[in-house]
Amino acid sequence: MHIPARIESRPSVTGTIILPVIAALLAGMTAASAQQKPTIAGDYTATVDPSFTLRLHLKLSADSVVTGSIDIPDEYEVGDALKGIRFDGHTLRFSVTGHTGFWEGTFAADGNSLNGKWSEEGYLTPELFTRDTPPLQGAKPSPVDGIWLGTLPAGNAPVRIQLIVKSDPTGRISCTMDSPDQRVMGMPCAHVLLSGDSFSFDIPVLSAQWSGKLAENGKTLTGTLTKDAAMPLIFQRQSAALPATAKPAPIYDAALPPVDAASLQSVLDRDLSEQLKSGMLAPGTGVGVSIGVVVHGVARVFTYGSAKTDSIFEIGSTTKTFTGLLLAQMATQGGTKLDEPVRDLLPPGTVAKPVGAEITLLDLVTRRSGLPRLPSNMRVTDAQNPYADYHTADLYAFLRTNGVTRISPDSSNPPFSDLGFGLLGQALANRAGIFYSDLLQEEVCAPLELKDTTIALSPAQQLRFLPGTNGADHRRAHPLDFDAMAGAGAIRSTAGDMLAYLEANLHPENLKPVVDSKAASSIASALKLSHQLQGDDIRPGTRIALAWLYQTNTGNYWHDGATAGFSSYVFFNPQRDYAAIVLLNASPQVDDSLVDRLGEHISERFAGLPAISLAP
Fold first, then answer.
1. Would you say residue 7 lies in a domain?
2. 261 and 364 share a domain?
3. N or C: which end of the chain has fewer CB within 10 A?
4. For residue 223, what is the domain's CATH number?
5. What's the rounded Cα separation, in Å, for the pair 212 and 191?
6. DSSP string of 283-320?
7. In degrees to the nearest 10, what's the CA dihedral of 423, 395, 438, 489?
8. How many Cβ atoms from other residues are within 10 Å of residue 349's Cβ?
9. Torsion region of 67: left, alpha or beta (phi above 0 gives left; psi -120 to 50 gives alpha)
């Protein structure tokens, strides 16, 4: 069982706590005080409505050191660490990794609630946490309370699944699921039910459900895990929980002299040999990869597995670089400014002007808006196609609730917001007075002659659209459809088109207008603007331009992307005059992305460095 990939870069169920969502969540309360020190260790919940919660986990060591983490299960945000924790016996203060604000509040005398406020740049929001499991004496656990371990088939390496179940004195049962081998821990359960010996629960982040029965001896849970299809999953009771398996150090192949475009395929024939025999690209998997490279003006496109040179793929978050270029085009043409508030590009009255700093277009394209990864009002009706039903009206409704105050993220690693790029694409389309898909065609695809780069496929293109696959058993994945979030991940393309896009990025000065239009005359300047680095490092060794990430040690501009059935990796290096695109019709595994490794491997072969291994 692998977590379904989404359109974010390097998909994961863990992430950064989303402060604007917290602001939307929290309800008012009265101040409380205590005359005795409460017992603070435990789990606490802030509930907005039955479908949206915030969970706080606190631990207290023997020497009275407080540690903890926080989750937003409905946003797939799990286990974000607390930092700067201060506790004086009654008042608790903490910050959350990835943000500059802090929460401060006071425990009730019985220790069962925590009342306080979140602060971010002077903005205060009330917040109430209530203890999940009050520390009452003599509470009787449920028959399924405890630690359970099972395995799921996954080729030659079964995946261990760990279940931790607990109940409170009122009889409410909760649980979390871990995949220690994949280093994914603390996935929250929902709709946990125990009736007699029948037990069931959902895992929302997996869009999966387990149901089964408790054995008479209380030591075995026998049932099935259902996601697309039912798989047997039997749990045995354990005395201790397993930690996450340590991630192995990457293995590198020996360096070669710098490889040119004409020689790369023969090098990859050898370096990919194990993948082609028994790995993801083996016969029968339905998986294929299409690769385009250019070195000093010499270009090649070649394929492996089920792919053909003209196969069309979903490119996921690599779409964001196109949205960044659209912003650069409109800024170059005078249609907008990088520092213009996004509010000015929305219909009048959509959202009020904030008191403090407000989100600009530059904030959105450089991941500095503070917006969450996904909007809190995104209610998925089809887990296989989660973005299809999120429309412009829903986006504007979220903004009316959330506001457009700029919340400064942690400058060392700002959160990656699909919402931010979806909003940027919609705002630019509003300013142009056309749909995002039409704006993409007019401002980028037409001037660069990208004939297979599109959102909606023609009947002829549909015949070349490679089916996406997901999971270790290479299940067929549903294509993703977008409306309001199109600017974050809606584009489909070929290796040939993407290589032409990269060549334009490498040498915008060589572009000759192919059509007589404003877009054609400004595209070279827009490409140069899209490469300009903005602000300080967003994390050590990485800076950001207009969506493009920049590696300071290699000089590569790069991006990657993933959907439920596809993954992509793209880079170009103006200093060394080379570029590559890798397109794969398979989503990344939870802790490994073949397409990322392949992209990095090609870059290292171009540079004459030891290259990360491509072995399964």
1. no
2. yes
3. C
4. 2.40.128.120
5. 14
6. TTS--EEEEEEEETTEEEEEEEET--TT-BEE-GGGHH
7. 60
8. 8
9. beta
In the block, which residue shows the tokens 């990088």? 338
Specify whether 212 is located in the same domain as 289.
no
Mean pLDDT of the chain: 85
Work out the pLDDT band at 373, boundaries 50, 70, 90: confident
Q: Which domain holds residue 62?
A: 19-131
What is the structure's pLDDT at 18? 23
Whether the predicted pLDDT of 32 surpasses 50: no
Partnered with residue 276 across adjacent β-strands are: none
What's the pLDDT tens digit per position in 161-195? 999 999 877 778 889 999 888 778 888 888 899 99
Predicted pLDDT of residue 573:
98
Residue 571 phi, psi dihedral angles, 5° rounding = -150, 155
**Domain boundary residue among 97, 131, 165?**
131
Encode pLDDT of 282-319 as tens digits.
999 999 999 999 999 999 999 999 999 999 999 999 99
**By the 8 A CB rule, do 104 and 96 touch?**
no
DSSP 74: G
The sign of the dihedral angle between the CA atoms of 583, 587, 591, 594 is negative
Residues 104 and 223 in one domain: no
Q: How many domains does the chain have?
A: 3
DSSP state of 181: G
Q: Is the pLDDT of residue 273 over 60?
A: yes
Q: Do 228 and 315 reside in the same domain of the chain?
A: no
Q: What is the CATH number of the domain that holds 25?
A: 2.40.128
Least confidently predicted of 266-270, 300-304, 351-355 = 351-355
Strand stretches in 524-586, DSSP E: 542-544, 549-551, 557-562, 567-573, 578-584
Indicate if 191 and 332 belong to the same structural domain: no
How far apart (Å, rounded) are the C-alpha atoms in residues 301 and 609?
22
Question: What's the token pair of residue 191?
Answer: 């709709």
Q: Which of 102, 131, 160 is the last residue of a domain?
A: 131
CATH label of the domain that carries residue 296: 3.40.710.10
Instruction: Answer for the pair 543, 353: CB distance below 8 angstroms, yes or no.
Output: no
Give the dihedral sign, CA 15/369/362/445: positive
pLDDT digits (tens, 9 = 90+) for 11-29: 332 222 222 222 222 222 2
In a domain, 264, yes or no: yes
CA neighbor of 414 nearest in space, from 12, 19, 7, 13: 19
Within this chain, do residues 284 and 337 fall inside the same structural domain, yes or no?
A: yes
Q: Domain check: are 406 and 509 in the same one?
A: yes
- pLDDT tier for residue 54 given thresholds of 50, 70 and 90: confident
The two tokens of residue 419 are: 């919402």
- What are the C-alpha distances in Å from 586 to residues 253, 454, 593? 24, 20, 9
Distance (Å, rounded) from C-alpha 175 to C-alpha 192?
8
- The dihedral region occupied by 386, where left means phi > 0, alpha psi between -120 and 50, and beta the remainder, is alpha
> Domain check: are 544 and 406 in the same one?
yes
* Structural domain contains residue 28: yes
594 lies in a domain? Answer: yes
- Separation between Cα atoms, residue 176 and residue 203, nearest integer Å: 8
The H-assigned helical ranges of 50-128 are: none
